[in-house]
Sequence to fold (249 residues):
Amino acid sequence: MKNFKHPLFDEVKYFEKINSTNKKADQLIKSKQISGNFLLIAKNQSRGIGRKDNSWFSPEGGIWITAGLYGLDVQSNLTIFTGICIHKALLKLFSKMQNDLKIKWSNDLYLNEKKLCGILSSHLPAFKYHLIGIGINTNFSEFPTKLSDLSISIKQYLKTDIDNSNLVKTIFDIFSSNLPEFIEGKLQIEYFNEYSLLTGKKIELDTDFDKFSGICKGINKKGAILIELKKGMIQPFFAGTVINFLDMN
Fold:
């Protein structure tokens, strides 16, 4: 991916090894060393980060990128929107995933109920930037022991090597073509709910203030997860981490 280009980005920077593309993007913006839309690509991350600063295993072979979008007029749901775009790109290129690829609210994609992709978005309003960090397990077959039952790569699933450049291009082609509708406030709720990992499952949500459990009923038009806490009582939650989920079938 060293020479990757895409019309969405004014500048693309490639790194053989970096601690985190997200942290580097933040640094470049705040030090005014970069402008316009940009994309940072790492061959290897030594300290990849996920939600709540959790570490993300990101060796050579995977897709580890952060997109910086300047002046993007959106306030929320960018993570969900990006997840939908990545899901569409994966199904476009790998139709065999049709029945096994799911979107997990709010920032992951799962394949065969194992984590395949993580998305991390943030907003730097003082600099008019949105950052979107994307990690996708593509071209490696082994995980650390503690992750082997929780994570999966495309190579493990398809038993073949993946063209990372083509996948990233397809993601941002779909992202760009769907962006005007998203800016208008239209989130593709039907698509998300069709491929939702959690809908119909009993889940536990940690909101940092309290924990709630119930049956997931999908998401609403504002991107909030809907949980039936008890019969007939459905509550939307706009933030939180799903820490447990159980298939009710």
About this structure: The chain has two domains: 11-193, 198-246. The chain has a mean pLDDT of 93. The two ends are 42 Å apart (CA to CA).
